[in-house]
Amino acid sequence: MNSFSDLFQTYNWDETRQSIYAKTSDDVLRALAAPKRTLEDFKALVSPAAAPYLEQMAAISQQLTLKRFGKVIQLYIPLYLSNECNNICTYCGFSYDNKLRRKTLSPIEIMQEVAVIKEMGYEHVLLVTGEANQTVNVDYFKQVLSLIRPHFSHISMEVQPLDLEEYQQLTPYGLNTVLVYQETYHQEDYKKHHPKGKKSNFQYRLETPDRLGQAGIHKMGLGVLIGLEDWRTDCFFTALHLNYLEKKYWQSKYSLSFPRLRPFSGGLEPKVEMNDRELVQLICAYRIFNEDVELSISTRESPNFRNNIVKLGITAISAGSKTNPGGYMVEPQSLEQFEISDERSPAEIARVIKAQGYEPVWKDWDSCLTA
Amino acid sequence: MLQIADTTFNSRLFTGTGKFSSSILMEDALLASGSELVTVALKRVDVKNNDTDDILSHLKHPHINLLPNTSGVRNAREAVFAAQLAREALETNWIKLEIHPDPKYLMPDPIETLKATEELAKLGFIVLPYIHADPVLCKRLEDAGTSAVMPLGSPIGSNKGLKTIDFLEIIIAQSNVPVVIDAGIGSPADAAKAMEIGADAVLVNTAIAVSENPVIMAAAFKMAVEAGRMAFEAKLAKPVAHAVASSPLTSFLDE
């Protein structure tokens, strides 16, 4: 098997969806009792049949997370470098057809933003851009990484998918983690949501984690945008992808996110709504299926939800986020990629974490570990 | 008394600093454990500002020796680099060598560990490598200049106890350096058992840190380790397959 595509092609969306919705209480109970859970067990855990077992799922999820990660929650913050984008995406504020002032931060502006982020106490930064290969490309990323590396112990990136050689060029600059979300594994719908630009190439995006694995990246993050398609089926394919990657690229760590579609300028209504109970079901299902994967929650979710999810399986949380380039200092009024839902400061979130009996962890990596 | 390299320890319980819900609770638990050697992950501490680092500032007790660990490195080259940085920043030549390229199960890489031990020993480090319970590897590490060996009881954080006991017994029987059983010890009973079979020390983290009451659990481990060691020194009676009367029937022959 050369890439995940080979495995993916052996699956049919509709059949997979039907098999999830056909799961019964017995399947759920079997999954909950199993010492190790299979992909079939995962289907049961995300199926409608699992809804009555949410409390049991939460208890197992909490216990597994405590054993593997302890009573700690990592903190990270996004730094939006650019909103330039050549893609048309139906769900994104940065879409090419959206009328907004485009901005890419200069080195001086980046350092102004970094100063604010450092003041908040952050050691882990997530660099985010749109997709504008002419201007926001590998050379730009090298410049940015060189600039900020002395200031952060952990640097993650969520930018356009790159070629293998490009990832290989970036890792020596201190790049530790790359997040790349497939958005949806439903191939036909993917095309509807990405009609123009390089992002319309489903296959290239699907094979990005393979390239990351080949480049020896320390950690990669996967996920779908919940709301574009049936979330149970999309998340099954995410679990399938994770399973494949863990076996093939066994030296990398993995994280999962579960962003729900949020309002934005020119907004798309979700095709499929996911309520809070269902999001908790999904988080617990991921944890019960995979004890080791990191699970991350962003400021897309409400304060009340985030307060209570800390104990249920989450390992990382963002706080104080701005989703626009220059949002912290340089240009606070520029257009956001999406509206955040929890506007509390990192210090407030740290207090919430402590109040739940957990330790907020600002640093969990060091550049000295990659000679 | 346990001696490793040039240092003597009263306590045979070594501890870790991860997974605690707060640094204050960690400190209280470590004090309750009586531990004199505490391992700390370089990735978690701010080595550039170690005076103000939250974890390190809670470990400043005269009886606590720091054992920086290299958790996160994937090969010998990275481990040697990290160890040198730790020596400079934390002013200790002790290093817990952890090379686990597999972040899922955290299984130690025997080849890279042996390479790194050879190099670090030459550089004057007191090396304590975390390894599989592999008797041959332990002898090879001895030849390479290790100051102790740290074979696992079961996978890290699993709390499954001494799944590798048959191999641990061979390692203990053959070793010329202290044997510290590290990883998987899930209960005071496991720790006591490790000491009873002759381990020189145990290292416990998860079982203490994620318990309902880490301070009481740490005290329980302290007692278990002491009891297990006393039992070992008092020479446990061996189990036998048949009954042996405490007043033998043939005792009159010796009168």
UniProtKB/TrEMBL annotation, chain A:
Domain Radical SAM core, first and last residues per copy: 71-300
Q: Which InterPro entries match?
A: Aldolase_TIM, BATS_dom, rSAM, rSAM_sf, ThiH, ThiH/NoCL/HydG-like
* Swiss-Prot/TrEMBL GO biological process terms: thiamine biosynthetic process
Cofactor names from the entry are: [4Fe-4S] cluster
Q: Does the keyword Nucleotide-binding apply?
A: no
Mind telling me which PROSITE patterns this protein's record contains?
RADICAL_SAM (PS51918)
- The protein in question is named Tyrosine lyase ThiH
Origin species:
Mucilaginibacter yixingensis
* Lineage of the organism: Bacteria, Pseudomonadati, Bacteroidota, Sphingobacteriia, Sphingobacteriales
UniProtKB/TrEMBL annotation, chain B:
Q: Which CDD domains match?
A: ThiG (cd04728)
- Entry's SUPFAM superfamilies? ThiG-like
EC numbers, comma separated: 2.8.1.10
Please verify whether the record's keywords include Plastid: no
InterPro entries, from UniProt? Aldolase_TIM, Thiazole_synthase_ThiG, ThiG
Is Secreted one of the keywords?
no
Q: Where does this one sit in the cell?
A: Cytoplasm
GO cellular component terms attached to this protein's record: cytoplasm
Matching entries from Pfam families are given as:
ThiG
Subunit and partners: Homotetramer. Forms heterodimers with either ThiH or ThiS.
The entry sums up its family as follows: Belongs to the ThiG family.
User: This chain belongs to which protein, by name?
Assistant: Thiazole synthase
User: Which species is the source of this protein?
Assistant: Mucilaginibacter yixingensis
Source gene? thiG
